Amino acid sequence: MSLTGALANAMSGLSAASRNAQVTSNNIANAMTEGYSVRSLSVAQNGVSGGVMVTGITRHTDPVLLAERRSSDAEVGANSVTNEFYTRLETLIGTPDQASSLTAKFSDFEAALIAATAAPESDVRLQSVVDSAENLVKDINDASNGVQDMREEADANINRSVNDLNDLLSMTEDLNKKISQATIQGQDTSTLLDQQQQVVDQINEIVPVRIMDRENGGIALFSMGGETLIDGTAREVEFTSTPTIMPHMTQANGLLGGLSIDGKPLDTTAGGQLAGGTLYAQFDVRDEQAVTTQAELDTLARDLVDRFQSSGADPTLAAGDAGLFTDAGGAFDPANETGLAGRLELNSLVSSNGAGETWRLRDGLGASTPGDVGNNSLLTALVDVVQTSTVPGSNALGSKSVTMSEMFGNMHSSVSTSRVNSDTALSYAAAQQGALVGLELEQGVDTDVEMQNLMLIEQAYSANAKIIQAVDDMMNTLLGI
What we know:
single chain; alpha+beta; 4-stranded antiparallel beta sheet; 11 helices; 58% helix; elongated
């Protein structure tokens, strides 16, 4: 080998070692950077001039593991939304062992009624019935209002998610262009590909996606339901938010907004085009879970109203008169059940904010004057109304004949079961996600290996430098002859 050939080989080796040191140092510096993929220098023999030639930088990823982890991310996101709803709902209505729960408030009302039968002449005991009834009504109202608040929050979250999704799709389009341009110009695209992966990760949590590679490093994204999100140009998802939501308002009756792309309506249910991530889960809360819970609360309120309005326990009530529990102060119309839990009121004849005539609990809501203070027959009939098993007027909590106490128990059981199931689903999804993230980390930057690589690079650099020094010495010797 000639001296010039040896010098050229050594110079190419120095250049490659220097570039390799830069890549390795970058790996070490980003060992804790989320979404960073390990790089390695690709080299080959220079067939023209000899020596070594840098052919590029390889970015190491496992597409199968990445796809599984993204699927797990979407599942955790969706289950987190569901779990938060049922956790908040259980807090709202309480658990049966809590003194502030709906069941406890009903038990207080039932106990006050029973106590009043023992001393019908006692104004204190009659007032206790009114107080406990008002507390029960307030808690049912609060639960209904809380459910609608969560529907409004879900609607606002949908709006934010859609805005975020559109922004992320635009970012993907921009990154596709930059990556393609860098690829054509022969530049390193590793950093841009990392950014692309992080953006897709965020999109995938909102809407799970399938990725199709396009030329020059670009990608196309499709939802698992087959909807194109970006293939060249990013598409825009459209949604109109509804700040105030009432119980009767649904997407089906056109009073709540749905999703569309380019004016084409999308299915927002579990079988829809964008199902599987947090966006779908928020629609599920707004349009399914919260609606079902409202129906259960309305069933509970209806049973309470029906028992005291239609049972015949109070003979002083005429047809069409409101009973002890009313629909916004009036008689209940079965055709207008939706939202009853939020409109439930105690009859103004006995309520503290109304006439406050507690003697009507003993003598009848329709009585013209107080009767015999020792007569407990109507109070006893009211207790029987509460404790008698009847078939509910609507079947959101079942169609079996139950007592009022059992009805409240069914409500708590429904919420607790849903919350436990959502806990289980979230725990399983989170455990799976943790395992997949762990596998990704194992394939990430190993600082021990990178430090060993730096030592080898240092040795290679030193060896090439010695060759250059030796060539320089030989050249000086030849020139000195």
